[in-house]
Amino acid sequence: MHQFIRLHIISSLLLLIATLAFGLLASWAFLFPETYNQFLPFYQLRPFHVSAALFWIISGASACIMHFKNDAFGFTNQSRALEKLYIITWIGTIIAIFTCYAMKQFGGREYWEFPPALCLPLLISWVLLMGSYFLPWFKSAANQPMYVWMWSTGLLFFLLTFLEQNLWQIPWFRQSYLREVTIQWKANGSSVGAWNQILYGTSLYLMVKISGNENIARGYPAFFFYILGLSNLMFNWGHHVYNLPASSWIRDTSYLISMTEWVFFIRMVQGFKNTLDTRRRYRNLITYRYLIASEFWVFLNLLLALLMSVPAINRYTHGTHFTVAHAMGTTIGINTMILLSGFSYMLGIDNIKDKAKKLIGTQYWICQYSLGVFWFSLIAAGMIKGYMLTFQGNTNFQKVMLYVSKALTVSSIAGAGLLISIGTIAVVYIRQAITMVVKEQ
Ligand code: HEM
What are the pLDDT digits (tens) for 129-150? Predict the structure, then answer.
């Protein structure tokens, strides 16, 4: 692993720690606005937290691709130079974004609330990453396994959705509020589909490496999974525009597609688990455990998403913490677990000292239980609000929030558990990235 990729891994893990810390602060600012409004109000902490979360996922995914592609189809001198340029511009722009937030300079649109001029270096940076990836890919053998196709598709579609997200900068798109919001929400939904392609590709790659069975990434099941992922990123945005006027068949189709992808992912992981021999499992135990955790969280989020899609339930839950539970349940439970699995494999965490491995093992379980409590209490907060406001027709908002706050206090305590557990794991990984013996490629 070359030094720049290590730098990229370390910066991604720092973003993960920042996500957790800002998330906890944001939850306190939400619960105690009188105290926090004086120095760090919720409106400022939310973009810090959400942008850190998005950049953690996208940076982590690109670090996995950059490292694993060397094994899949190698690199060239040109691609190595582009990789370095990508890492410098990407990290530099993220630092500039957080500096703007600290100076209360906002702009942009939801999830990307920094001054829009900073989208340009992000765009250039992504093109550099694509160059570093596609140059050696085009020179490699034609018959690549499915995970390579998934990475390639994710990279390309992230570029397209990023451009789409920025269409609002052209005045015509801002002339109609509905037009602008439709495109924004659609683009955000497709972006998630794009990074999921990269992450599911990474989990497929890890399953191949752990089991030593290349057939997992070839043949009809893998191809079918790829096609589902592709249709998902093209059409799953339908459920992101739920509240906008649209034909119901668009919503139904998009929901069906996103649910089938998850069902298929669970099937693939189960197939892998059943055929894996015990020796190989123990050799990669930490990497393996995160993959299994992601499968478990896919299952739970599938149930939640199915509930949310029932119109009679959606009527009460929409715009409540139910939706926040869906967003964080998937980004922590699925995306972060797959990334931690990829990082464990890259950094050789299964071969570090037993004491450090034991620490990771303990923190892993604290993380899973904390996430469970965190997730259920957010759902409870959403249900209380939906029940009291919509079902009971309660107009006393303060009274409603009194009950909601109780559930949110539990989620904030569980969030502290997440900060401690995932934070400790991230620190061990950073230390390993700094000290590991590196063979310069
Ligand atoms: C790796 C860890 C985490 C990730 C990836 C993550 C991701 C996210 C995302 C994507 C959102 C936007 C949700 C939406 O717009 O519906 C969000 C919101 C939020 N998160 Fe997290 N989060 C993480 C950890 C935490 C922790 C530990 C806490 C602390 C309790 C927390 C508290 C919050 C709060 C308060 C919001 C704002 C909710 C609102 O607008 O009402 N997050 N998070």
Answer: 999 999 999 888 778 899 999 9
